[in-house]
Design a protein that fits this description.
This protein has 308 residues and is mainly alpha-helical. 80% of the residues lie in helices and 0% in strands. The chain has 13 helices and no strands. Helix 6 (77-109) runs antiparallel to helix 7 (115-144) and helix 6 (77-109) runs antiparallel to helix 9 (194-224). The longest helix has 39 residues, at 154-192.
């Protein structure tokens, strides 16, 4: 687009008349009219004022297409992805939070043993319901909008990418610090008894729940800006579609294996000890799930690189 066309678009979008723009720049209306018809160009001083007035850069104003920076989000993609990231992060965090609250009821308040699975299952049920609703809405949205025109500006992307490292580093630091204090206070808690151990573990899991929630939220928010990946994922080549299915099968098998291992560890420790009240296998066996998730992500990445 020419400078004149860009200027007219920006002026119309700002709701300004030629007289209004001329008054803001302290020039005549005829000068603005000549600029928009590309008959003449303003002085450099006026160009810089125009860039500041319409929040654009000089190169785009003179030689680019300013309309690219003002494409509308007709599909409501940004609003939906914000909603999706909020609820998915909440659902994932709630699963870990329910474990923490279950142990906390026993450790902090001395509730009966039945309170632990009751709180745990209640929290997991709510979390699963949230994730199901979010997943179904996501599935419907992606089917209705398989192709999204990129409407984000470079400034929007850079603004979030500037915050993203902190949103990753701070939760990771919180997990490391929590694990350090868990080790340091572990011997003290063991001396105090079962309630102190459970209370300490509950606090640690509260930290994990908060950190994981932030990590999931930050990753999903970062992913929403990659519209090239969205369009590639929802308009795949036959080879890409086959790779996605294969990765899905592999990840499904990994998570099923993780569940089998978790149950084997839980029931196995109870049977080996001959004490069916000893549930340390259940309390610690859940670690296979995040490990399975990491392996799943690694396998998917390696399969993608292998195809390339």
């Amino acid at each position: 687009m020419s400078f004149g066309t860009n200027l007219q678009f920006l002026r119309d979008r700002a709701g300004m008349t030629q007289e209004g723009l001329a008054e803001a720049l302290q020039v005549s209306r005829q000068s603005v009219s000549k600029w928009e018809s590309d008959a003449t160009f303003p002085e450099m001083e006026k160009l810089l004022v125009l860039c500041e007035l319409f929040h654009t850069d000089l190169d785009t104003l003179l030689r680019g297409d300013v309309r690219e920076h003002y494409q509308s989000d007709a599909a409501g993609y940004d609003r939906f992805m914000n909603w999706f990231s909020n609820w998915v992060a909440l659902g994932v965090g709630l699963i870990i939070l329910s474990i923490a609250l279950g142990l906390g009821c026993r450790g902090w308040f001395g509730a009966s043993e039945i309170a632990v699975p009751a709180v745990l299952l209640s929290g997991v049920a709510v979390a699963v319901a949230i994730l199901i609703v979010a997943g179904m809405r996501y599935d419907r949205f992606e089917k209705e909008h398989p192709l999204i025109q990129d409407f984000y500006t470079r400034q929007q992307r850079e603004r979030y990418l500037g915050r993203f490292p902190f949103l990753i580093a701070l939760p990771v630091a919180a997990i490391i610090i929590g694990a350090l204090w868990l080790v340091l206070l572990g011997e003290w808690a063991e001396q105090q008894g079962e309630r102190a151990e459970l209370g300490l573990m509950a606090v640690f899991l509260l930290i994990i729940a908060g950190a994981v929630t932030v990590l999931v939220w930050a990753s999903l928010r970062r992913g929403k800006y990659d519209l090239e990946a969205w369009n590639k994922q929802h308009n795949p080549t036959p080879e890409e579609e086959a790779r996605q299915k294969k990765a899905g099968w592999v990840c499904g098998a990994i998570m099923i294996a993780a569940t089998v291992i978790y149950m084997a560890v839980g029931f196995g420790t109870m049977a080996m000890g001959g004490d069916y009240k000893n549930d340390w296998g259940w309390r610690w066996g859940w670690i296979v799930y995040p490990i399975g998730g990491v392996i799943c992500a690694l396998v998917s990445h390696l399969m993608e690189k292998g195809e390339e």
